[in-house]
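Journal club prep, notes for RB
We'll compare a predicted complex against what the paper describes. Inputs for the flavin-adenine dinucleotide case:
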Amino acid sequence: MMLGFLLARAGIRVVVLEKHPDFLRDFRGDTVHPSTLELIYELGLLDEFLRLPHRKVDRLSMQIGSRIVRMIDMRHLPTHCKFIALMPQWDFLNFLADHGRRYPQFDLRMRAEATDLIEEDGRIVGIRANTPEGECTVRAELVVGADGRHSTVRAKGGLRSSDYGAPMDVLWFRVTRRDSDGDEVFGHIEAGTMMVMLDRGDYWQCAYVIPKGGIDRVKANGIVAFRERVLALSPFLADRIGEIKSFEDVKLLSVAVDRLPQWWRPGLICIGDAAHAMSPIGGVGVNIAVQDAVAAANRLAAPLKSGGVTDEDLRAIQDRRAFPARLTQQIQLTMQNRIIGPALQATREVEPPFLFRLFDAFPVLRRIPARLLAVGIRPEHVQTPDAGAGSVT
Ligand SMILES: Cc1cc2nc3c(=O)[nH]c(=O)nc-3n(C[C@H](O)[C@H](O)[C@H](O)COP(=O)(O)OP(=O)(O)OC[C@H]3O[C@@H](n4cnc5c(N)ncnc54)[C@H](O)[C@@H]3O)c2cc1C
């Protein structure tokens, strides 16, 4: 959506296909980081964006065993917004879509599911999609696969990913939030369990972490046992835990970490999770996908205007974005494999790792993870012009 909007804004005709009729998907992250807010500022849309309902988080703590460790402090970031805006992603996507629609060259087609690529002489020249009106084809100078971690586009393009594994899956459910609940502690790890709670105003979006493939065991133990495990982590939910009536109210989200060795082939490139599926750790995936989109727009706007996207352009996008994606995934894998995985297997009380205790003890150190998480590695800036609604290529 971000890439479509930026290219349309630069005067290039874009077709965005979305298989669902709306953006009300619960699997999406809610964390709009300072890096993304900075881009929205650069687009001149920040005031309007911040008028949408959201919650601000400028510090993050985590409870590990019996100890609460303060880990991240964003109040000193070199960005206009020194906080994460917690906003349901459907609001963010609708915001971008509404701004895209101001340009006649932006053609967003909902309920259009990409099913195959059109290839001629070894080059991708378009896409096939199922729509309520039947199959349609879109021919294009360039196809961009931004269709997430189960990407059809990358599979049809024959791009194969390397899987780095994830020791966990996530059970996703909501319970009522009260203003008296407090909001700074965002995650809690105990031996054998972990839960993260996202403040969505009148309810908590809860992510209860289980060992990979452990859903059958959780279900076999029954919903009462599940509620008890949740309460052990967040006892203040006792008066509303009954809102989780059955496993119908609990969705399984599988976590993957993978990456394409090559993100492109002539006429096609993948970005976001389609190129590098991110773990939920740090809530960075959405923001990295947005950074990919900005880098792609910066590189592609000129060649798309002149109708001559080369392999060199596509290679340059991967060269620019592969390093931030790889390093961020490495940090996620270290957290997964050194902290979360062992904690989920632990039978005795878990302790915060030494590094986390340092963050807790020395406030100035909390600026380091803040910078990594909230600004990211190699932050992008909008370099594409606003060509206005009349200039179409
Ligand atoms: C449990 C869990 C929690 C997470 N929490 C966070 C978080 O809090 N913050 C964060 O930043 N990241 C989070 N992430 C990571 C984040 O979800 C991804 O990194 C991010 O969504 C990637 O964005 P994307 O645009 O590349 O793909 P997606 O967000 O997956 O978007 C892909 C889009 O393509 C559409 N689509 C798919 N196939 C087709 C098709 N064939 N034709 C047409 N349309 C199609 C989908 O409907 C979707 O709209 C989480 C991940 C998991 C697994």
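Talking point for the session: Residues 19 and 31 are 23 Å apart (CA to CA).
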